[in-house]
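Anyone up for a design puzzle?
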């Protein structure tokens, strides 16, 4: 029988990234939906408790992009020092209307591994999400050998744009093919090759 190495928790210096479970939904509701700055851009409206439960379940059950099996790829970001869930992040399949090739949007639709993240407001500004996303990208691009990972947001989401830049996404501005990522989308892609080259120089 084929060895199936995950879902398993991923670890960083300060964080555990463990598979999301339905039981995380009330905590996500508390830290995401009660604060307008957190839901302002994604998806633009706060979720009710039942909607957040469905959101959590969907992310917990997304099939992973490497094997096509349910990989529990949505992760709860847990702070080691106190065990608190401070956010959510993961790399989930997303249907991209134009697809991507060599960093440029193309005609036709593709399913792309896409990085997502959100964190409770009181945990912003401490470098936690950069730390979490670097581990996820290392896992996806090196351990799972995905060829590339996308990330997108809206231009006005300055914190997310800065995070993308820190991770090396080099966000490119392009006109939205649909209402994808809102009115002024900014998207970037990191290939495994780029990640390998930059991972030694990332600070
Ligand atoms: C996107 C989001 C996760 C970014 O949060 P963040 O706190 O800016 O990101 P990080 O946790 O990586 O912290 C980086 C910040 O902490 C600072 N920092 C402090 N201590 C640090 C440390 N030890 N290591 C690294 N950075 C540190 C950095 O300088 C940086 O601040 P800056 O952007 O002002 O320069 C957060 O804004 C969020 O949850 N937004 C709502 C959800 C959302 O919009 N998601 C994207 C939808 S498409």
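Challenge accepted. My sequence:
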């Amino acid at each position: 029988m084929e060895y199936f190495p995950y879902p398993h928790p991923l670890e960083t210096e300060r964080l555990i990234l463990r598979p999301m479970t339905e039981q995380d939904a009330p905590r996500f509701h508390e830290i995401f939906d009660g604060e307008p700055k957190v839901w302002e851009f994604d998806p633009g409206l706060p979720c009710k408790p039942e909607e957040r439960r469905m959101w959590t379940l969907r992310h917990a059950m997304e099939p992973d992009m490497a094997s096509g099996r349910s990989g529990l790829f949505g992760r709860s970001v847990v702070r080691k020092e106190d065990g608190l869930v401070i956010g959510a992040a993961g790399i989930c399949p997303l249907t991209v209307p134009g697809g991507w090739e060599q960093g440029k949007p193309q005609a036709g639709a593709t399913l792309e591994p896409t990085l997502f993240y959100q964190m409770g407001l009181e945990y912003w500004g401490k470098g936690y999400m950069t730390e979490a996303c670097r581990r996820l990208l290392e896992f996806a691009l090196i351990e799972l050998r995905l060829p590339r990972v996308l990330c997108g947001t809206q231009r006005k989401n300055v914190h997310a744009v800065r995070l993308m830049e820190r991770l090396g996404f080099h966000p490119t501005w392009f006109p939205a093919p649909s209402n994808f990522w809102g009115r002024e989308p900014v998207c970037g892609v990191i290939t495994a090759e780029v990640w390998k080259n930059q991972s030694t120089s990332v600070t």
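A detail worth pointing out: The longest strand covers residues 85-96.
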